[in-house]
Amino acid sequence: MLTERQELIQLPARSTVYVELGFHLDLGSAASFLDTLAAQRVAVLPPRGQKTDFHAWADQTVEGISIPELPESPQLMRAVLTGQVFDAASLNVFWFELTEAAYGQIQRAKGIFDRVEGRAFCFDFVRGQSGSTYTELNFPAWLNGRPERFSGIEIVGHAIDQSAIAQTLADCGLSDPAIAYYQSQIKQSIETEKAA
Q: By CB distance 3.0 to 4.6 Å, which of 15, 20, 34, 78 could disulfide with 39?
């Protein structure tokens, strides 16, 4: 979920990093960014698709999955959620509704979300594949107020109801007093375990 102007943080030597470029990005801008990483360019493209700029840009092309043809160009929705904290149940209901077309015909959705217990998760959905994937990110638990690390969501699809998505995400987010309460309970539990 990089924008054209974002830069990578300092990485240890010999790190493996996967950067996904959206269809909407200028490949020239991405090329200069990737050249600093000595990266291999792999393009995942639809089967039997037309030639695109990605064919010339990539070192290697891989055939992706087939998705139904839709009459209009896809929409893109992005929302930065840095500082938002969600309880697991509300987040799971939102994601289910999103991927089951409650907010439009979603072709791809991915997000990084901070949950109340201090953990961060990456959710990923591609229409036509078997369900969503949920990956806990290897970040330290955030138990002191609202997280300051990046979180956000990116959605590609058709007839996306952006205002309903934004409202649902706002409704799912926890208030400052709720975050403070849950974080104090978790810290107390950790201290009790250490003392035992």
A: 34
